[in-house]
């Protein structure tokens, strides 16, 4: 069952937004989306092969 990559809420608990990255599907809830937008470095360890823009 899909769950938020940050807080692990499932689609049964909260709406999820589907993302794709390097051909893989990832999900994030609206509450955690600002973290992905404004502090992506905090999610780098939760997204395989992800390097936040400021670290490239």
Strand order of the largest sheet: 1-2
Number of domains: 1
The low-confidence parts are none
Which of globular, elongated, flat, extended, rod-shaped describes the shape?
globular
The number of helical elements comes to: 1
| pLDDT averaged over residues | 93
Helix fraction, binned, reads 10-25%
The structural class is: alpha+beta
The radius of gyration over CA amounts to 11 Å
β-strand number: 2
Write the H/E string, N to C: EEH
Could you tell me the strand content as a percent range? 15-25%
In this structure, how is the largest beta sheet organized?
2 strands, antiparallel
Distance between the termini: 32 Å
Quick rundown:
This protein is α+β, with helices and mostly antiparallel strands and 56 residues long. It has one helix spanning 33-38; strands at 17-21, 24-28.
Characterization of this structure:
With 56 residues, the protein is α+β, with helices and mostly antiparallel strands. The protein has one domain. The protein is 11% helix and 18% strand. It has one helix spanning 33-38, and strands at residues 17-21, 24-28. A two-stranded antiparallel ribbon has the order 1-2. A hairpin with a 2-residue loop joins strand 1 and strand 2. The longest helix has 6 residues, at 33-38. It is globular. The mean pLDDT is 93.
Helices and strands in order, then pairings?
Blueprint: E1 17-21, E2 24-28, H1 33-38
Antiparallel strand pairs: 1-2
């Amino acid at each position: 069952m899909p769950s938020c990559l940050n807080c692990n809420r499932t689609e049964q608990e909260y709406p999820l937004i589907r993302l794709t990255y390097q051909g893989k599907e990832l999900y994030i809830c609206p509450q955690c989306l600002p973290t992905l937008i404004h502090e992506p470095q905090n999610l780098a360890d939760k997204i395989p092969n992800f390097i936040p823009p400021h670290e490239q």
